[in-house]
UniProtKB/TrEMBL annotation:
UniProt-recorded name of the protein: DUF2530 domain-containing protein
Alphabetically ordered keywords of this record: Membrane, Transmembrane, Transmembrane helix
Membrane-crossing residue ranges in chain numbering: 53-72
Pfam families: DUF2530
Source organism (scientific name): Kineococcus radiotolerans
Top-level taxon of the source organism: Bacteria
Amino acid sequence: MPLFLPPSRAKPPPPPMRTDDRLAVLVGLAVWAVLLLVAVAVPEVRGTGQGRWLGSCVAGVVLGLLGLAFVHRRDHRDRRGR
């Protein structure tokens, strides 16, 4: 099996696969939101002085919202470009 094929023998790349990225972002966002609610509701998490639990959950929710906006803009741009 040769490592290099001349352009005349190379196969064309496959077309890009369409996926529902919005669903993946929404699931991740929902998980972080539930974890944030648990971290706020459980006094042991707040009482241990470990604010990193709350900070991590807030960061997950914020990044999920940014990801959702990114996916929405990308999908809108792709639809408009066609």
